[in-house]
Amino acid sequence: RHSPGGVPKTVLVDARNVLRSQWPNLPEQELVERCRAWAEREDVRVVAAFDGRAPGGLVGERALDELLTLAGTGTESVDDWTARRAATLAEAGEEHWLVTSDRELRRRAGKGASRLIGGGGFLRELSGRG
Question: Whole-model pTM above 0.70?
């Protein structure tokens, strides 16, 4: 399941979009834990981007380990942040997936993605009901 060169593909997650795809909303920390477990099962690297602050008040990026990075976009919109990151990955020839149900973000950031996953579908995958 690795991309050429043995580096896992990156999965860019619009975290608040995923949280809002289910009622009641999943707690942020639970989403983070489920993303980490899913990344291990799928042999991918997840970057969970949160509008504003990520859990723990994080603004900026912090790799929690080799499988999961949290990003808090601060004053930048998660759409702008994700579109820029997706473009960087595409330019580098890195296979990546995009997780969001946001149509505008899919239009802006999904062109280079090898897979698009909706927020609700991703939540079902995280809980093993994909």
Answer: yes
Distances (CA, A) of 53 to 67, 95, 126: 20, 27, 22
CB-based burial, 73-87: b 16+ in 10 Å, e otherwise = beeeebbebbbebbe
Give the pLDDT confidence of 93-124 residue by residue, as tens digits: 999 999 999 999 999 999 899 999 999 999 99
How many CB atoms within 10 Å of residue 117?
Answer: 20
The answer to whether 99 touches 126, Cβ cutoff 8 Å, is no
Residue 51's alpha-carbon distances to 1, 8, 9, in angstroms, are 29, 25, 23
3 token code pair: 């991309």
